[in-house]
Amino acid sequence: AQSRCPNRLAKTIVTSYDVCICVQPSLIVCMCVPAGDGCGLSVLGPCSGSLSSLGYPGTYPNHTVCEWEISVPQGRRLHFRFADLDIEENNCQVNYLRIYDGIGPHRTQIVKFCGLGLNVPDLILSSGNQVTVQFMSGTHQSGRGFSLAYSTTEHPDLITCLDKGIHFTEAEFTRYCPAGCLTSVGEISGTIPHGYRDSSPVCLAAIHAGVVSNSVGGQISVVNSKGIPHYDGSLANNVSSTVGPLSNSLFTFKTSGCYGTLGLESGVVRDSQLFASSVWEWSDVIGKPSEWGPTGARLNGAGLPWASAHSNQQQWLQVDLKKEKRITGITTTGSSLLEYQFYVSAYRVLYSNDGQHWNIYREADATQDKIFKGNTNYLQEVRNNFIPPIEARYVRISPTQWHQRIALKFELLGCQFHQGNQTTRPRIYHPARPPPPSVATDTPPMYGRTTHTPDIRNTTMPPCIINDVAFATVLVPVLVMILTTLILTTVCAWHWKNRKNSSEGAYDLSHWDRADWWKSMKQFLPSKIAEGEESVRYSSSEVGRLRVRGNTARLRAEPAEYAQPLVSGVMTSLGQRSTFKPEEGSDPGYTDPNLYDAPMATDIYHAYAQPLPASGAEYATPIMIDIASHLSGSSTLNQPTTVSSFMGRGPASLLTRTDSGQSGRSMYDTPKSTGQATPTKDLAYQVPQSSSQKPVE
After folding, report:
1. pLDDT one-digit tens code per residue, 455-487
2. Transmembrane region positions (predicted)?
């Protein structure tokens, strides 16, 4: 087809972008179009880049053409990944996208695309280190055009500038971002280190975070996690992130960790380490001096910032870090004073190891000095990262553009420099202190000279919103956890206390079943006299204390399952048919302290009481034997003795009675006469008998 075109067109088909198209075998249509009139925003990096049609994602114009010639180092190959491909297909002879192997007239076609909403999931691979991409449009009504990314084949995990966080489901993943994603469309929400909303393009967020450079691209390591209710906005590396609402997930980036502050804001850097080319000084109408010196250039510091006496590009602000450090970024702000809304909108960064020989910072493989985009207002903080980082002792900021007057505050980001790498670094000198800055004493005009503010993309200033929602999101769960812990602790303590009280009160008569209590009491009432003469005595003088009289032996017993009255002294059996009646009060129970004094009604018998024969007494009476008789030499000294009495009223409650139960007297029987003395007051409770002794029913 080219041979049928005019010679002028045939010779300049690549350089002047004149195009001849073979519509039919005998018909060739040639169009002379301006060079590159169909090229959109593109960045062609040394190892990666991104391309798009003119006006993307809007409809591309009619009758346009553009070609991109891409070359990478010899011995490497290229591959391409499409983010979007939408070309109207009514006439694919004049509406298409082609990719060629090689550059110039000897190139060979790899692939051609034409159609709306095409999906190209696979990588398109070249056979050499040079590729030509050609886009052409005729007359059309719709179509967004295209957007693609490329890199060398060493990065098979290449993604495009339009891939968002929601497109990746892995908890952690690594990908390769191409150069040029700053020119792509898309909006991000969030900031480092809190994370970015999952709707944000990943590579654009990586530029904002400072983990890759827009001019070079690079590998990123991403971590997905649960979303937060609120995302802050900020301006960093010429990318503006906006405030964002709640999302299901967020992502952030793994970094080297060398992003700490280097001491200007905290005061580690002393005032003597800050220098400036000039200082602005003036006095107000009452003669009060005002000095805008370099010591005020600390980020978030109170008072006046640094401002230069002159407004030209020879002004600078310098910091001496005292030793070489790795510097990965810088954060700047304007005057932060409402009445003096001064700020620097663009600047260069110079660095040195000796304070005399200075280097202007450039990006990797760049041939021009890097101009950093500064502030867009006097108050908002703006961050710029150095990729690759600076390794130096001295850092100097040289403003190139400003608003009204040069004034700024700043902080450096970075970490300690590893001395193991210093063998290739220049020797550090200790220069003399620079001369004092010049001083201007003119009264400040309210409207000074203003340089042209650069055209900065994506600089929409997000509103300054206090992160109350995020704070409440963290605080409320913490308070709920603390309150829940207190409630559980209180309930457990109350429950433990109740169990303890229940355990300690297990022997309280009020919790006993009366039948079970009486049954357990019977085991301590022997029934045979053949075992020897014994005396059961009770006393209320001392509870739970055993006293042994004379040479009498003490009867030891194992504790019963429930607490029983303590018994000591000489005990005798009450007889085979003897019973001992517990008290029944007006309200039957065992809370009455005098359990052994009250009589029972004649028509009520306890479940375990054995009725006496009609000829006998109505109730069994405990047999009392004075221990004094044993002390006088009775033969019963050989028997174990205990002395006890009933609790409550003591011996006085054991009044003399007849068996007839006459009124006016106690219903208890009178102790049978044995010719022995009545009990003394020096008595104790009866000790429970050992469970090894079998009571006689």
Report:
1. 444 433 334 344 555 667 778 888 888 999 999
2. 469-494
Report CA torsion sign: 512, 513, 515, 520. negative
Q: What is the DSSP secondary-structure string of 430-489?
A: -PPPPPPPEEE-PPPPSS---PPPP--TT-PPPP----HHHHHHHHHHHHHHHHHHHHHH
Whether residue 296 is predicted with pLDDT greater than 60 in this model: the reply is yes
Of 12-16, 257-261, 279-283, 401-405, which has the strongest mean pLDDT? 401-405
Q: Give how far the C-alpha of residue 580 lies from the chain's centroid of Cα atoms, to the nearest Å.
A: 73
Query: Is the confidence at residue 104, as pLDDT, over 80?
Result: yes
Length of the chain, in residues: 697
Q: Answer yes or no: are the C-beta atoms of 133 and 70 closer than 8 Å.
A: yes
DSSP state of 652: G
**Cβ neighbours of residue 439 closer than 8 Å, sequence gap 6 or more:** 278, 279, 280, 281, 309
Q: What is d(CA 331, CA 601) in angstroms, rounded to the nearest whole number?
A: 99
Please give the residue that has the higher pLDDT: either 564 or 663. 564
CA distance 399 to 391: 21
Residue type, 445: P
In this predicted structure, the answer to whether residue 573 has a pLDDT above a threshold of 50 is: no
> Phi and psi for 376 in degrees, rounded to 5?
-110, 0
Say how many Å lie between the first and final Cα of the chain, rounded.
130
The closest of 535, 376, 401 to 458, measured between CA atoms, is: 376
How far from the centroid of its chain's Cα atoms is residue 694's Cα? 69
Query: Could you tell me where the DSSP H helices lie in 513-611?
Result: 514-521
Q: What are the distances in angstroms from CA 386 to CA 50, 177, 364, 412?
A: 22, 17, 10, 11
β-sheet with 96-101: strand ranges across = 64-71, 130-137, 96-101, 108-113
Q: Give the C-alpha separation, 415 to 406, whole Å.
A: 28
The backbone region for 528, taken as left when phi is positive above 0, alpha when psi lies in -120 to 50, beta otherwise, is: beta
Q: Which amino acid is at 207?
A: I
Place of tokens 């009866």: 686
For 84, the token pair is 């979007």
Q: What's the rounded Cα separation, in Å, for the pair 81 and 52?
A: 12
Q: Are the CB atoms for 147 and 87 separated by under 8 Å?
A: no
What is the reported pLDDT for 647? 41
218-242 pLDDT, tens digit each: 999 999 999 999 999 999 999 999 9
| C-alpha distance from residue 151 to each of 56, 75, 135, 567, 687 (Å) | 21, 14, 19, 102, 98
Best-predicted range by mean pLDDT (47-61, 527-541, 595-609): 47-61
Q: What is the mean pLDDT of the chain?
A: 73
DSSP structure class, residue 490: H
**Segment 669-673 long-range contacts (CB within 8 Å, at least 24 positions apart):** 669/617, 669/618, 669/619, 669/620, 669/621, 670/621, 671/621, 671/622, 671/623, 671/624, 672/621, 672/623
Nearest alpha-carbon partner for 231 in 467, 460, 475, 459: 467
Helix ranges, 141-285 (H): 202-209
pLDDT tens digits for range 40-86:
888 998 899 999 999 899 999 998 899 999 999 999 999 999 999 99
CB-based contacts of 386, cutoff 8 Å, min separation 6: 327, 328, 329, 330, 349, 361
Contacts of residue 613, defined as CB under 8 A and 6 or more positions apart, other chains included, come to: 577
